[in-house]
Amino acid sequence: MAAIFAKHRLRRTCDNHRKVCTCQRYEAAYPLHVYLHVLKLCLLRDGRRSVRYRCNTVNIAQDVLCRRPGWVEAKENEDWDFIWCDLAWIRDNSNHLYMEEHVRINHFRNQFELCRKNLMVKNLKRHRKNLEKDFGHTEASKCDFFPRTFVLPNEYHLCLEEFKRTLGSTWIMKPAGKSQGKGIFLFRKLKEIMDFKKHITRSDEQRDTSQVENFVAQRYIENPYLINGRKFDLRVYVLVTSFVPLKAWLYREGFARFSNTRYSLSTIDDKYMHLTNVAIQKTAPDYDPESVRKWTVQHLRRYLTAKHGRARVGTLFEDIDNIFVCSLQSVQKVIINDKHCFELYGYDILLDENLKPWLIEVNASPSYVASSREDYEMKFRLLEDTLNVIDVERRLTGKEKRVGGFDLMWNGGPVHRDDVIPATCGSSPFPSNTHLGCVNDREKQLRRLLKPIAVKRGRENIPEKRQ
C-alpha cells in the first residue's frame, strides 16, 4: 500500500506541476523505482509519451525491458525506438536498416572483429606491432596479455615450429566462431596436431564449395591461480557506446566461475577440470544447480586482498583495466562506428599463479540466463544500468562519470577519479575511474543522479501531448 500511495502522490504532483516534487519527501522511505515512476509520469524531453522497444531474445533482457517504467513493447508493424536483438538478427538486417536519430540498437554491425577468436588475435597482434613501431617495446608490452596463439589452418607451419620448440608444453585448440566451450580440447603430442591438420584441410575443389572452419591453437596457461585447488576465470562487463571516439564503461560487478574438479596437469582430457564455462560445468555427472561454484568479483577481490595485500591486488586490477582498453583500441579503426549502436561485452579473464591476468576471449552476446537467484539479480542490475547509460529517455547531461553500477573508464582518453581514495573501496594505488570489485551502491547513486531531474520535471509546466 505504501508504494501505491507514493506512486499516487507522485502522479498527482507531476500532473499538477507543483513547485516542489513530492519525491523529495520520500527520499529515505522509498526505493529507486519510486524515482523512476516520477520520470515515467513526466513527458520525455522530446515530447514522446513512451519508449517502444523490440526484443527477440528470451532471457533476463526481456524482463528488464518489460518492467522498465514508460517502455512498451512495439507491436509487429509498429516502429520502435530501441531493439535488443541477437547476433543473427543484426547480421541479417543491419545492411538495410534505416534508423531515426533517437533509435538505439545493442550491437555494432561488425562486432565480430573483437569476438571471433581468430579476428581478435589478428587485431591484437597488429595493434601490438603498431605500438612497437610507433612507441617502442615498453608501450607494446602492454599488449602482452594473451598467450602465444596461431590461427589454423593458415598459420599451421608457424604453429608447428613453435610446438616443436616447446615440446612437452600443453596447448589448447578452440574453434574460432563457437562459444560455450564447444569443440575445445587440449593436446601435447605432435601427432595430435598433425592429425588435426588433416581433419581441417580440404582440397581446392572443396574450398570452393565449403568454407574451411578456422581454429586457434594457443599455449595453455599451465599455472592458473587456484582457490581451494580449483581453476576459475572472471566474467566482467564492458559497455562501449562509441568507438570514434572510444567511450567505454566498466561495470562494478561480475563473477568468478570455478571448475567442478580440482586442478591437475596429470590429465588433460577432463573438461570439467580445465574449462570453467557454466555450459560445460552443468553437464558434469555430479553437477548440482543449487551449489553452483561462483563468487562475485567483490568476494574475490576481498579474498585476494586479504591474501596478497591491497597494493598488489590494486596492480592486478589496473592490469585488467589495461586489457579492456588495449583490446578495444585494437579494433577501434575496423569497427563500423554508428551512433545508433552500443555493445555490452562479456570479457573472460584468467589469472595465473603470479596474479598476471590473461585475456581468454570477448563475448558480444554473453549469457543473460541465470544459474541462481543471485545471478539473476546481478544480471538484472547490469542490464538495467545499461539502459540507464544508453539513456533513450535523454535524462542525463552526457557529462556523468558514473551511472548506476557503470563507471566511465575511457572517453577519448583515460578518465580519472574525482576521489583518489574512494570510501566504498578503500585505498587504491591508481587514479583511473574504475571500481571493479568495489561496492556497487547503485541505488543510492541513481537516486542522487535522478532526483534533480525528477524535481525539475515536476516543476516544468509542459502541456500533456495526446497520442
TrEMBL record:
Keywords: ATP-binding, Ligase, Nucleotide-binding
Any one GO molecular-function label of the UniProt entry: ATP binding
A GO CC term attached to the entry: ciliary basal body
One GO BP: microtubule cytoskeleton organization
Superkingdom as given in the UniProt entry: Eukaryota
Gene3D superfamilies in the record: ATP-grasp fold, B domain
Pfam families from the UniProt entry: TTL
Coiled coil (UniProt feature): none
Annotated family: Belongs to the tubulin--tyrosine ligase family.
Protein name according to UniProt: Tubulin--tyrosine ligase-like protein 9
Protein's organism: Takifugu flavidus
